[in-house]
C-alpha cells in the first residue's frame, strides 16, 4: 500500500497539497548541512560519526556515510537494530545496555553487522558483557562512557582507569576507547561560556587519555562533541571523532543558540493547515501537542503567516497562530511551515518524512527508528 501523499511525488507544487500535519525536509538544505559538517570534520582532522537519534532514518544515515562519515551513533538499541535492518553496518550505541535480554539482543546484532560498538560505565556490567560476548562467539567492541559533569551516565575520570583495565582484560571484549558527550553544554547561549565549559570538560578527557597511555592502555577512539560545540571541541585536541546530530535539521532551540545566525540551515519543518479563522488576528491549525515535541516550548512560524506571527498550542490536535489584526487575514486552507522546537523527539512522532525540493515532493522516507526506545 502506497504511503499517504505518495500520489503527490513529482508533482510541481505538490508539497503544498500534503495531508497535514506532515514532517517536511528541505532536501537542498539537508544536503548542504551534511556536506558542510563533513568538510568541517575533514579540515579539523577528525572522523565523523553522526548521531542518528536525530533523524532515525536509514536514508539519511546512508547520505551521511556517503559524504564521509565512518558510521552512525544510535541512542538506543532498538534504533540500532532498525538501522542495521536497513543496511547500516557501522553503529555505536551510545546509551548503556544493562539487562540480560538487552545484552542478548546486542550480541545478536554484533553477529549481524561488521562494526558494532557499545558503551559501558560499570565494572559489573562489563563482566556480564564479557560473558555474553564469549557465549556468542564474537568479541564486542566497548567504549568506556565518561561523565563530563552532567551526571546522567558515565564513570568519573578518577574511576575510569579501573573500568578500562577490566574491559581490556576481558576475553570477550575489545577495549576501543572512550566516549564523552557533554549534552548539558550544547544549548548554552553565551558562546564564551559554552566554549569555556566544553574545553574544560575535554581537558579532563585529554588528561585521562594521557594517563591511560602512560599505563599502556591508550584509547584509540575518543568520541564525543555535539552540534552546539562542533566548532569548539576540535580546539581541545582530545577527540578523534564527532558525534554531532542535530546539524542535519536544526531546530528552534539550536537557532536560538546562535542568536538567529546559525552555522547550518533549517531543513526540518512541520507543515500544517489553517482549519478555522473566525477571529481577527487569530487562526487555528491542525498541528497541536501531538505534532511537536513540547519540551522546548512552541515552534516558530517559518512561512505562510504574516511576519511576526506567534504559534501556540491550542490543544492535542490544534495549534494557534496569533498575528497583527492589520495584516493579511489567514483563511481556512492556508498552509504554514513551522520550525520545530526540538528536532529529535519531534521526528519520533512521525512515521515518515517528506523530502521536498523547490516545493516538489521528491520522496517519502520512512522513519525506521521511530518509537524504538528500548
Can you describe this structure in just a few lines?
By secondary structure, the protein is α/β, with parallel strands linked by helices.
Describe what you observe in this structure.
By secondary structure, the protein is an alpha/beta fold. 29% of the residues lie in helices and 23% in strands. The chain folds into 2 domains: 6-24 and 262-366, Lyase, Ornithine Decarboxylase, Chain A, domain 1 (Beta Barrel), CATH 2.40.37; 28-250, TIM Barrel (Alpha-Beta Barrel). It is built from 9 helices and 17 strands. Strands 1, 10, 11, 12, 13, 14, 15, 16 and 17 form a 9-stranded mixed sheet that branches. An 8-stranded parallel sheet has the order 2-9-8-7-6-5-4-3. Helix 3 runs parallel beside helix 4 (100-112) and helix 5 runs parallel beside helix 6. The longest helix has 24 residues, at 191-214. The radius of gyration is 22 Å and the shape is elongated. The chain starts with 21 loop residues before the first strand and ends in an 8-residue tail after the last strand.
